[in-house]
Amino acid sequence: MWSSDLLRRGVLLLAVAGLLAACQVRPVYAPVGSPAAGGKPAMVTELASIAVEAQTDRVAQTLMNELIFQLRGGSALVTPKYRLHLILTTRVSDLAIRASEDIAVAKLVSLTTTYTLTEIATGRVVTSDNVYTTTSFDVTSQRYANVRSQQDAEDRAARAAAADIRLRLSSALIGKG
Fold first, then answer.
1. What is the pTM of this model?
2. Dihedral through CA 30, CA 60, CA 62, CA 118, nearest 10?
3. Helices 58-72/143-176 angle, 10° precision
């Protein structure tokens, strides 16, 4: 009796080991053709071939830089297949007002980005859309702290918009192929 239990446990252990040997362990969101697997996935190459048009405004430059980093991961631009045109509108409004003094104690930064992805070879618009992000910041009696807080809120909004745009571009390029 004891030996048959040991034999059953041994067979069960071998079956479980066989099933586990067939499994692959990798991060859920890792690209399928990651460098560890010996190649670059097609989507990474497509995103890296998007040339982002230069911007002149501080917030627009922050968005442009963040997009370039998210699209290419810090690597150089490969031969550009697509051009990304951005139009930004930034608005700052009062969010909370101290009723006794009629002074704003919190403000809201609203960033609206209109983007258009165009195929360079044909001039065809691949996708075009609007992205709307908001962030808030507190207002104090110190002028420099308020300026810095507003810039930080604008930078956070630009980073959020860049992540949203990257996701939408990925979806559009997957649907294209």
1. 0.74
2. 30
3. 40
